[in-house]
Amino acid sequence: MDTKYIRNFSIVAHIDHGKSTLADRMLELTGTITAREAKEQLLDDMDIERERGITIKASAVTMHYEYEGHTYMLNLIDTPGHVDFHYEVSRALAACEGALLVVDASQGVEAQTVANAYLAVETGVEIMGVINKVDLPAAQPDVVAEEIEHVLGIRKNECFAISAKTGKGVRELLDAICELLPAPADRSDEPARALVFDSHSDPYRGVICYVRVFSGKLRVRQRMRLMHTGRSYLVTELGKFRPAMTPVEELGTGEVGYIVANIRDLADVHVGDTVTDDANPAQDPLKSYQPPMQMVFSDFYPGDNTEYSKLRAAFDKLALNDASFSFVPQNSPALGFGFRCGFLGLLHMEIIQERLERENDIDIVQTAPTVSYEVVMSDGQVRRIGSPSELPDRTHIEELREPFVRLEIITSTESIGGIMKLAEARRCKLLKTDYLNPTRVMMEYRAPLAEIVYDFYDQIKGISRGYATMDYELTDFEATNLVKIDILVNGQPVDALSIIVHRDNAEQRGRKLILKLRKAIPRHQFEIPLQVAIGGKIIARETVKAYRKDVTAKLYGGDVTRKMKVLKRQKEGKRRMKSIGSVQIPQKAFMSILDTS
Ligand code: GTP
């Protein structure tokens, strides 16, 4: 197809501003799907995704649309909206020439709107402002247009006002996509180069690569080469998502589709890699993007009722379709054999954890998540660690650095004071305050990731009565005054309970932590001392008193079924426990580290 009539674009938006609804409406108006199918929100195809209402994996769909007597091919590449998945937004944008920035007319510009707009600007795509949900009684399209102009620099009179729900303005938007977004550059005479912007593994067909062709063309039965690994494969099928996978004979310059080529292992396909023709290869690969940085780490151990090998098999299965999640075997002196896992962020971690339990019926004990640190050793070497237990001996450490982010918070003017107080307590430095309008403000901070990654969002939501939104992006690692706190349970150090904190808060955090642990660890038949140590020195102690809880004693032995029920309940309560020496520690105790209140 003539590249003149191709448009490749993404929709980016803050969560719930209507990205999926708009995608569905476009699919319907272009006849790609029927109205009934649209109801089922086609672009989100994972269960958890639907339940949580967030888009995780980028998917792509090809539509055909008539405009001014020509048939246009519109390729829509879907993107996730959550901060954990910035990386996936960038890689979807890298396959496009344009982006629709959707803003809810009743909510206005939110933190993720700004973050997504920045990503779009960095990628160099053409941005169109779209104000959605104009059908709502609370819609204020003019106020929102002002905000878009003020914060994002998109002219307010160039924004499109639509309702993705009723379809109002969507046809005009499709016209504008054909009229205003740039066509792909025509490089059909050059050797084939296609960007792999996503991939997934199919149990029957091997790895399916999602590609955007930038030059030349790909043909079925040709040998293709992945430039990163240099390996070549026979292309057995090419196709497009309409939205079902539909085979085609070739994919030309500017087109978006998929490749099936008998690739067995997902690890062989690097997202961001360039596909070329093995017989007539391109000289240079396309510009790639940075691999995703794992920001949050946590250890997963099989609970007392689960085998290590079962956990390993479950991880292997999960990793097949999620290249940004990693796991390595870990042996903890206190908890035994398990895995150290790396995630893009906290939400990513929760999704993996949920899928593990739901799809595999296993029982895991997970340690509190931690960020990664940079350790400068006395010999000058720099090491990244993802767990306080990996911290080398103090005498070998020259400097300990923690990750810092640029944090944006958008909130109502009434909650500024409360948020500033919280941010200050979390060691955040205010860089800029910008009034979007008389009632809404955007604050920009430099913040230590460790202080904002866990409960900070919930806290600012509370302070602002649900109003505030935030987003952040890693900027650098900086040396700060950090110390490691160790916890001893019954005289034994439990590495999985260690934390790294700023020295100014260390004593207070340590004391609070053992208070929480005292409540979380059930009484045993003996007394359990809990101690906090900083640099080998014990600074605080609590005790879990001895107690024998004979739950069936008061049932007199008469009613057997009742007794069985109580015992069963007690057994269930024991799940997700981990024995350390003779002490049983429940899952929630490991998480008490996170509770800083
Ligand atoms: P994520 O996938 O979580 O990023 O959300 P999203 O941006 O895809 O939002 P989605 O399309 O799921 O819409 C969120 C909610 O807003 C849904 O309940 C939609 O029905 C509703 N919605 C979307 N567009 C409109 C609209 O134009 N008008 C009204 N009234 N509601 C809308």
TrEMBL record:
GO biological process: positive regulation of translation
CDD domains on file: EF4_II (cd03699), EF4_III (cd16260), LepA (cd01890), lepA_C (cd03709)
Keyword annotations from UniProtKB, A to Z: Cell membrane, Elongation factor, GTP-binding, Hydrolase, Membrane, Nucleotide-binding, Protein biosynthesis
Entry EC number(s): 3.6.5.n1
Binding site for GTP: 16-21, 132-135
Signal peptide start and end residues: none
Catalytic reaction annotation: GTP + H2O = GDP + phosphate + H(+)
Record's subcellular location: Cell membrane
Keyword Protein biosynthesis found: yes
UniProt key word Nucleus: no
Membrane topology label: Peripheral membrane protein
GO cellular component, one term: plasma membrane
Protein purpose: Required for accurate and efficient protein synthesis under certain stress conditions. May act as a fidelity factor of the translation reaction, by catalyzing a one-codon backward translocation of tRNAs on improperly translocated ribosomes. Back-translocation proceeds from a post-translocation (POST) complex to a pre-translocation (PRE) complex, thus giving elongation factor G a second chance to translocate the tRNAs correctly. Binds to ribosomes in a GTP-dependent manner.
Similarity comment: Belongs to the TRAFAC class translation factor GTPase superfamily. Classic translation factor GTPase family. LepA subfamily.
Record-given protein name: Elongation factor 4
